[in-house]
Amino acid sequence: MFKSLVQELDSMMNRDPAARSRLEVMLFYPGFQAIVAYRLSHWLWERNWRLFGRGISQFARWVTGIEIHPGASIGENLFVDHGMGVVIGESSVVGDGVTLYQGVTLGGVAPSVDSDSQRDQKRHPTLEDGVIVGSGAQILGPFTVGRCARVGANAVVTKEVPPFATVVGIPAKEVQGDRRRAEHDERFVAYGTPTGDIPDPVAKALDGLLDAVQSLRARVNDLEDQLAESERLRGELPSVTDEGAEADSENEVKLHRSS
Questions:
Q1: What distances in angstroms separate CA 243 from CA 92, 104, 233, 238, 247, one per listed residue?
Q2: Is the predicted pLDDT of residue 129 greater than 90, yes or no?
Q3: Distances in Å between the alpha carbon of 85 and those of 72, 98, 110, 121, 222?
Q4: How far is CA 63 from CA 66, 83, 239, in A?
Q5: Residues 59, 62, 64, 68, CA torsion sign
Q6: Structure confidence by residue, pLDDT tens digits, 22-59
Q7: Is the four-CA dihedral 125, 143, 158, 196 of positive or negative sign?
Q8: Mean pLDDT value across residues 219-229
Q9: What are phi and psi of 106, to 5 degrees?
């Protein structure tokens, strides 16, 4: 047990350059305190001392601001950085070396069957080893976030995420090209930020609108030039109607003189 706690402390220090000592992490890091409380509450939960398990988890929530259901399955070296507002649901499965930042929710969806058996259904996500979830992200539903995947801040994830992928946005979508870079670089990345540029969908839409405006402007200019040229040619050529009127007038004058 002691060896496991030391391992947890060291893993947190490796991922947080602000941590100066094990004692500091033990006394002042709510993520470590929440994990210790979870280990005890989960041990009681598995032995059907569920009321006591829930009591410990609720007390830890009051103290740390981190809510971890004792029924969740959490591997080694989970690091909840800052932690306030983190929620991990009952049927969540969290692998080894996972990092969660403040405001993260591993949430569930409504059971598909309205019966007593719904309590045994998996409603929450599975995070495989090495996943990093940025602050404010919501992962909702019984699907898997693959190994070493990264979830950007404030993303809302509602479907499976491939290993090494980075997803951002609402709803979350994969950052193209980031997976290939991440597969060759498994170093810890704070807040799960992409290794490349993050595509901005709003900026992309605005760029498309600007391109359309430029195209329409060019077309309008072309039509105006054609219209001006048409008016110029019309001014240079005599009107057919005017020529006919002048000819009729001359014929009338000639007839009048001859008479």
A1: 92, 85, 17, 7, 6
A2: yes
A3: 17, 17, 21, 25, 59
A4: 8, 11, 94
A5: positive
A6: 999 999 999 999 999 999 999 999 999 999 999 999 99
A7: positive
A8: 87
A9: -100, 90
What three-state secondary structure class fits 171?
Answer: coil
Contact 12, 32 (CB under 8 A): yes
Q: Is the pLDDT of residue 247 over 60?
A: no
Amino acid in position 18: A
C-alpha 231/C-alpha 213 separation (Å) is: 27
Helices (H), the chain: 2-15, 22-28, 30-46, 50-64, 178-183, 201-236, 240-258
The radius of gyration computed from the CA coordinates of the chain, to the nearest angstrom, equals: 35
> Stretch 102-127: mean pLDDT, rounded?
81
| pLDDT, greater one: 70 or 83 | 70
Residues 41, 53: contact at Cβ < 8 Å?
Answer: yes
- Report the pLDDT averaged over residues 185-193: 66
179 CA to centre of own chain: 15
Half-sphere exposure of 46 (CA within 13 A, CB side): 7
Peptide bond into 199 cis (omega under 30): no
Please choose, from the candidates 134, 131, 123, 135, the residue with its C-alpha nearest in 3D space to the C-alpha of residue 77: 131
Beta strand pairing call for 105-107 and 87-88: parallel
pTM of the model: 0.71
CB 115 within 8 A of CB 134: no
Please give the angle made by the CA atoms of 32, 37 and 39, to the nearest 5 degrees: 95
